[in-house]
Amino acid sequence: MSEETTGGPAGPRAAADLDLKPALEAMLMVADEPAAEEHLARILERPRRQVADALRELADEYTAQGRGFELRFVAGGWRFYTRAAYASAVESLVLDGRTARLTQAALETLAVVAYRQPVSRSRVSAVRGVNCDGVMRTLLQRGLVEEAGAEPETGAILYRTTNYFLERMGLRGLDELPELAPFLPEAEAIEAETQEGVPSFDPDAPDDGPGTPVMPGTDDVDVDDQTEL
């Protein structure tokens, strides 16, 4: 007996049978980059011109209705963005409990990772002289550092800087980092303090102790990004 005769729920509709505008809204809501008209048209099995017209109509409707978001054509595709008039509310939500700029401790930790990568968390803590667990988590969340495997001898997780770090620093590669190595202690000098399995710091302790010099030009690193819906 079929679902139609039993009154059961109908299955999902084919893409070509969906209402165009709601379908576009649903797809753009989950897009993590601007979606090209050709790509959307292919998925929905519609002519590109029909999709393009629907997208422009949606953008005009959101503006006319005064919605808190808008639909923009950027970088060859369409994507939702929060409207600039409501930036203060969005920033309060996104930055709640966090500072927009990196702290001095975070900049010092980032400098050690940049010049000693790949490097373990305990080695960074030994170089700085204070626990770096908290600021390392911040740098990971901001996308400035990432895991880079494990140290063969100890199994400790190693960290390195990301492409986003290079972008924020305005560098084409790590070879453009300013000369700073003479200010950092050699690996042998801190070898005794880098046993990953031996707890040497309290993870909840404040991170405001002495540190290494900060990379030139990073005093005002601002990690604010355009907020996208």
What does this structure look like?
It is elongated, with a radius of gyration of 25 Å. A three-stranded antiparallel beta sheet has the order 3-5-4. With 229 residues, the chain is an alpha+beta fold. The model is unreliable at 1-8, 190-214 and 216-229 (pLDDT under 50). 38% of the residues lie in helices and 11% in strands. α3 packs across α4 (48-65) and α6 crosses α8 (133-141).
Identify the strand order in the major beta sheet: 3-5-4
Biggest sheet overview: 3 strands, antiparallel
* Structural Rg: 25 Å
Order of helices and strands: HHHHEEHHEHHEEH
Report how far apart the termini are.
44 Å
List strands and helices in order, with pairings.
Elements: H1 3-6, H2 20-30, H3 37-44, H4 48-65, E1 69-74, E2 77-82, H5 87-94, H6 104-116, E3 119-120, H7 121-128, H8 133-141, E4 145-150, E5 157-161, H9 163-169
Antiparallel strand pairs: 1-2, 3-5, 4-5
Helix pairs in contact: 3-4, 6-7, 6-8
Give a short overview.
Helix content is 38%, strand content 11%. By secondary structure, the chain is an alpha+beta fold.
List the defining traits of the structure above.
single chain; 9 helices; 3-stranded antiparallel sheet; alpha+beta; disordered N terminus; two-stranded antiparallel sheet; 229 residues
